[in-house]
Amino acid sequence: MKTSWRGTVLGSQIAEFLRRPGRSAATALSLTIAAAVVFGTVVVQQIIGATTAENFRGTAAATSLVVTAPDGSDGVVDGSVAELGRLPGVAEAVGQVRNGMPLGGSAVERWLRLSSDPGAGPLSQVRVREGVFPAGRGGVAVGEEAARRYRIAVGSTLVLLRPDAGDAERTEEVRVRVSGVVRGEATDDREPTAYASGAELLRLLGVRGYERVDVRADAGTDLAALADRVRAALPGAEVRDADDVRAEETRQAVAAASDSLDLVSVFLVVAVGAAALVAASTFRIVFAQRQEQLALLRAVGAEPRRLRWALVVEGAAVGLVAGLAGVLAAWGAGLLTPPVAARLGHTLYLPGRFSLTGAALTVLGTSVLAVLAVLAPALTASRVSPLQALRAAALSGDGAALGRGRAVAGVVCALGAAVIAWQRVRGLPRPGDVGYDGFAALELVVVSAVLAFLALVAFGPLLVRPLLAVVAVALRRAGAASRLAAAGVGGAPRRAAGVSVVVALGVSLLGSALIGLASLDTYERDRQAVASPFAFSVSGRDDGPLPAALVAGLRGERALTDVTGVRTAEAVDGPRSVSVTDLDLRTLRQGVRLAPVSGSLDRVGPGRVVVAAEHARTLGVEAGDAVTLRVGGQTLRLTVAAVLRGEGPYGADLFVTPADLTRAGVAAAPTMIVANVADDSSDGYARAERAVTSVVEDRTRGAERAVVQSARESGGGTEDLEAVGVTVNLMLCLTLAIAVVGVSVTASLTVVERRREFGLLRALGLSSGGVRRMVTLESALHGALGGALGLLLGLPYGWLAVRVVQPEAPFSVPWGGLAAVLAGLLLLTAASAALPALRASRTPPVAAITQAA
């Protein structure tokens, strides 16, 4: 007699799979998200590559050959370029030079890149936006970035400072007229850049030859033969096919643009791991719901090995479907990206082909991930007793007790995490230590954090009820539905832990990232505050005294405030020479503060000194200690009022009151002037900068006598940190999103499992609204438990990560940000149960006396 495929163990599982596809769809949801994110990264990389290839033009598309000057030469001179242009098969030869010069005519130091361009024709890399491209001597066109940043208009005159050929420390002024504003296709235009013909730039720069020559060949010319003719005409020169040069330039540009994707890929691993945990949890619930079916299979002779194999095959099938769905979703999103970007004013390009390799690997990886997720639940489910088919046992088999293997693994992971963390704490550098590698230490911290999380996974069921007793205190007094919700979560600690640890993973990572970024941001702002505590500083180029009229002129400007003349002198501290100044560190620019390592700036006064940390380490002093200095033949005995973090502002080591410097006989003429802006808005800052520049140029000899430093120009380090922070937080929010999906899936599956329970509650008088609130609050409690567990893990490891990466960084906890994360998490987890709660509320009381589906 021939046996039907449905009569086999695998066949029965397939039949169950087809009969209840909703269960498998719920299990596959987290895997689908993971697959979509992974393949989405592949699509994003392709879009970046295609867009970079279209927009980046380091070498013009019409260029056929690129000729580089021989090593050790002065470049390719104009005569040689003309000779190349006369070779058979050459349509055009253009010399290329790229360099830069400081801009004169202003007290504020500015830099302008210079790039040659023919201005028209196939080899031109610029497009005129305003005015015209310069056609003769003495003219340049500026890029849009230069026009915006330096406020350069068409028709204005620029002063370029060219190094004097006879004296490298002197400069000579070269005046050029701005004939137009252009948009450059090369990456130079991301910086302030000016363009002119190659011959004009050679004259402006005072150099003889070009760095390279771009050659455009006639149509149909044999490039290999032409390259030989170029080598013969210019011995020693390197001749390369322009296609190879463009490919290399594009690879470099894509590699630079992909740095952020490298960071993203790190967090993709976390997101995939979270998806695996969610999948394992949902597989366990689904198998528990099918306990009677599995027990019947055992009763009719199914071996545990065959049953286990059938469940693993089922998991692989779910992973295969999830992988295909994720790939299609990511590719569809990629197709929509360019038109959406176009509506927002950005131009993006689609890749030319679908990545079959990336898609196949993503689908295969999702299947493997599903198999790994199903192994442990399948092992447990295959051990079900045949007697379970004869009695209505609890379906979930949930409990807080741990198996011996799980307990041992948890203890080992916890001890390993503690030992590594303790070693890192003991290995923190002391002030002045050199050779400390913070990022190598961070790798060990990550290992410790991974072990701690694995210990949390192992001991999660034991932690649920104690934490629930704290988290759900208010709920127990808020009505029957709230008390039932707390009892429902506490009654299934293994399931609650399985869901909550995924939430905890996202919260701990996001919390640690927020803490680390806040601490590093505070450190960076403190460092910038120490480097430039005032909006503007004016100093002499030779560190000589400044005219008193300059202080009076700046004080007369309404756009400025806190204008102060500062004196700096050399002092002797034992065998060392140090810099001492009377700069007042209590009058700083808006939004800036100085955080002393010890002492207080409020204690500054006559006879007291503030010491930079670098010098304090050398002296071995701290707040309250005595310091003796010799300044101009006078001896000053001072008490340390405070020790600053890092180096001192403007390079000074010691900061005293003006009275102490006067007592030491230091001349009254200032060597530096500091000032703040009266209006801290962008317009106010621009007015203040124009006022400082005008007064300095009027009261001194302009750029020869004084230099103006702007705090806004010297800052900007926090912008990169903010960009990294946005990328990291967005990727970590993905982990939280997967965790919220896991909460929703768990709620959906438990509604099916607890149908009889909900029917009984309805029969006892609980309203449909009460059932809906109960299920919603259970999901919110999963989020609250995960948030609590995440903070217990994230706060200490956030502190440790900050300590090992930058020991001098203050530990800053963004309580507002963490509170917003937790509040949003509670809302999301509660909202994720909306549909399951609605389904549960519709359970009729008669379900209490019928067999659950």
Describe the structure.
This protein is α+β, with helices and mostly antiparallel strands. It contains 25 helices and 22 strands. Strands 3, 4, 5, 6, 7, 8 and 9 form a 7-stranded mixed sheet that branches. A 6-stranded mixed β-barrel has the order 14-15-20-17-19-18. It has a 4-stranded antiparallel sheet with strand order 2-10-1-11. The model is unreliable at 1-7 and 390-396 (pLDDT under 50).
Task: List its salient traits.
853 residues; alpha+beta; 7-stranded mixed β-sheet; 6-stranded mixed barrel; 25 helices
The number of distinct β-strands equals: 22
Structural class: alpha+beta
Number of H/I helices: 25
The poorly predicted ranges are 1-7, 390-396
Mean pLDDT figure: 78
- Helix content, binned percent: 40-55%
Largest β-sheet summary:
7 strands, mixed
Radius of gyration: 36 Å
What would you call the shape?
globular
Termini Cα gap: 33 Å
Q: Estimate the strand proportion.
A: 15-25%
Secondary-structure topology with pairs:
Layout: H1 9-19, H2 21-55, E1 65-68, H3 78-85, E2 90-96, E3 98-103, E4 110-116, E5 126-131, E6 139-143, H4 144-150, E7 157-163, E8 171-184, E9 193-196, H5 198-205, E10 212-217, H6 223-233, E11 238-241, H7 242-257, H8 259-289, H9 291-299, H10 304-343, H11 356-381, H12 404-426, H13 438-471, H14 480-490, H15 493-531, E12 536-540, H16 548-555, E13 560-566, E14 568-573, E15 576-581, E16 598-599, E17 608-612, H17 613-619, E18 626-631, E19 634-644, E20 654-655, H18 658-663, E21 672-677, H19 682-699, E22 706-710, H20 711-714, H21 717-753, H22 755-763, H23 768-805, H24 815-832, H25 834-841
Parallel strand pairs: 4-9, 6-8, 15-20, 17-19
Antiparallel strand pairs: 1-10, 1-11, 2-10, 3-4, 5-8, 6-9, 7-8, 12-21, 12-22, 13-21, 14-15, 14-18, 16-19, 17-20, 18-19
Helix pairs in contact: 1-10, 2-7, 2-8, 2-10, 2-11, 2-21, 8-11, 8-15, 8-21, 10-11, 12-13, 13-15, 13-23, 14-23, 15-21, 15-23, 16-19, 21-23, 21-24, 21-25, 23-24, 23-25
